[in-house]
Amino acid sequence: MSLAAKVAVFACYGLFVAGALTVFAADVYYKNARNAFGTGDYIGAYKNANKAAALNPNEPRYFRENAKDELVVSPELAPQSLEKAYELNPNNLLTLRDVIPLYFLLTRENSPKLPVSILQTAIQRAKAFAPNDAGVMVLAAKYEKKAGLTEDFEKTVDVIRRLRPDLLDWHETLK
């Protein structure tokens, strides 16, 4: 193998290792953000989530975590992080499902107090993606009910009635 080929192989290996270490570091910051949030260190959580997203800006869960931390530290930034998570992977059930409670809080908090239509859009995205998932439907119904979206709630309950009628008998959200 020529010297140029060896240098090229070594350079490729170096780039691969650097990329892997960057992704690993982003995961460490993400974990630190979750731990900090759990202990009430919201500033630390926010800083770690930002570092994770900066190191790996293609990972939706970093932006979901960032939005959760921003709800406490800087709520006006949270909607942008939630949309970024969606844009990165609009076919990710975890993202579609897990942003619903965050959007609900953003429609209730004093700052920025988003219109309920933003929450409706998030719920509709999840329901459209997983129309036969009873868990998604129950979550949607829960937040539709909390937000006073009576017509949407009733339609969702009809879907649940078709999917899992037993849930209507015992699930607190659906009573």
UniProtKB/TrEMBL annotation:
Segment forming the signal sequence: 1-25
SUPFAM superfamilies: TPR-like (SSF48452)
Superkingdom to which the source organism belongs: Bacteria
Listed InterPro entries: TPR-like_helical_dom_sf
Keyword line: Signal
Protein's recorded name: Uncharacterized protein
Organism whose genome encodes this protein: candidate division WWE3 bacterium GW2011_GWA1_46_21
Lineage of the organism: Bacteria, Katanobacteria
